[in-house]
Fold this protein.
Amino acid sequence: MSDTIFIRRLRLLPLLMSAVFNRPADTVAYAAGDLVANSTTAGSVVPLNVVVGDPFSTVMIRRMTFRKSGTSTSNAAFRVHVFTSAPTVTNGDNGALDIATGAASYIGNFSVGAVRGMSDGVVGFCLPDIGADIAAVLDSAGKLYCLVEALAPYTPASAETFTLTFEVVAV
């Protein structure tokens, strides 16, 4: 009698996958707890989305790199909420973050607090707030969806660009 052993191949090298959005062209200060988004109109907010794997695959999210085009580090503290399907919000950019739908697909978050300012922007490296990695089963598009929350009163640059880069490993 022969025993058959199935071994699933792991991709041990991490992939770096990025997504970018531009916030509105204004410099209205955020309050702690405000949504940082692409539109001031709630129905027009598009969660940042990034393809990180094959449709319906499982990935481990190891860390995230946060970049913004504005050079100010004053109160540049944010939380990035991560979902496996697109959440909806009740407010637009610069309104209180109120997630209307998304509880079933919420998988974790990253807090961005220690940032480094440079002449061409700001960068911060983050680990998940809870646990060493975040495991996720992706949707039919192989995407993650993100909402950015201001954690402190922050005055943005006009039309500031935010880039999130996820380090992921397919399992």
